[in-house]
């Protein structure tokens, strides 16, 4: 299989800007990889985001099991990326996460334009980059990071 997998972070962006970027990339399915699909930023909590995406013709799926465990989120907030990657690496090897990765791989095989969503603008600071790397290794898919205009 080959194709394209997009990623996007909504830090410093509005919901309209993020969705506009998804539409420009012709994304058909947004996969939310946050452990907790809630946000203080307007428009990015699960129900609001799903409804806004639906209005834009983009499907929404929350793969909660791919989210970062609480201790990894705490390390990220503290700026300790080394600890974050150690925790997330262990998390990726769990059976629940392997099943979610299998589900994502199957989706990538059947849907043309998929994008992973999380908070951090910089994909190098976000676990979605690790998910994208795993999918690229497993499926040969090309990863492209999207950056919505800053608000």
Description:
The structure is a single chain. The chain is an alpha/beta fold and 151 residues long. The chain has one domain (4-146): Protein-Tyrosine Phosphatase, Chain A (Alpha-Beta Complex). It has six helices and five strands, in the order βαβαβαααβαβ. It has helices at residues 15-24, 46-55, 70-77, 81-92, 95-110, 128-139, and strands at residues 4-9, 29-32, 59-62, 113-118, 142-146. It has a five-stranded parallel β-sheet with strand order 3-2-4-1-5, sandwiched between helices. β2 (29-32), α2 and β3 (59-62) form a beta-alpha-beta unit. The N and C termini lie far apart (36 Å).
CATH superfamily descriptor: Protein tyrosine phosphatase superfamily
Instruction: Give the distance, in angstroms, between the N- and C-terminal Cα atoms.
Output: 36 Å
Widest sheet: strand ordering = 3-2-4-1-5
Low-confidence stretches: none
CATH topology (fold) name: Protein-Tyrosine Phosphatase, Chain A
Query: What general form does the structure show?
Result: globular
Class by alpha and beta content: alpha/beta
Note the run of SSEs as H and E: EHEHEHHHEHE
Discrete helix count? 6
Largest sheet: 5 strands, parallel
Q: What is the CATH class designation?
A: Alpha Beta
Estimate the helix proportion, in percent.
40-55%
